[in-house]
Specification:
This is SET domain-containing protein. InterPro entries: SET_dom (IPR001214), SET_dom_sf (IPR046341). With 137 residues, the chain is mainly β. 9% of the residues lie in helices and 19% in strands. The protein has one helix and eight strands.
Length: 137
């Protein structure tokens, strides 16, 4: 769905006290030129909503700045740049039983009416300045 549609869906979820699992897919990434750009608007940028249905990625948690996984859009059997799969790759060696994390790239200072969540990642690089649970140093 588009980011605009997701905005209104988040308002509906909030009114019903439903926790959301949404992810902005391609607001910054251009598959054609294989780098980020800033010229998509909310009616073009696609968002994934896994609130009711999802896959194993629902069990990968957020961590600001220093996650152990990277997310990349991957095209398989199509040249349509708006149809792709989301793939996770390791950013470093991952220890046995270590929590899997990736950076959702959320701007916690954004004045947007609907907030996704309060960050509790514990990273020294945490962007949620209101978070009292950040590790110091």
């Amino acid at each position: 769905m588009t980011n605009s549609e997701q905005y209104y869906r988040n308002i509906e979820y909030r009114e019903k006290n439903i926790h959301t699992y949404t992810m902005l897919l391609d607001a910054d990434y251009d598959m054609e030129i294989n780098h980020f750009k800033d010229d998509l608007n909310d009616d073009e940028a696609l968002t994934l909503d896994a609130t009711r249905y999802g896959n194993v990625s629902r069990f990968v948690n957020h961590r600001c700045g220093d996650p152990n996984l990277l997310l990349r859009p991957v095209q398989i059997d199509t040249r349509d740049t708006h149809y792709y799969h989301v793939a996770f790759f390791t950013a470093r060696d991952i220890a046995k039983k270590e929590e899997l994390t990736w950076d959702y790239n959320i701007n916690f200072d954004d004045k947007h009416e609907v907030k996704g969540f309060r960050c509790l990642c514990g990273s020294s690089l945490c962007r949620d300045k209101k978070n009292k649970f950040q590790k110091k140093g």
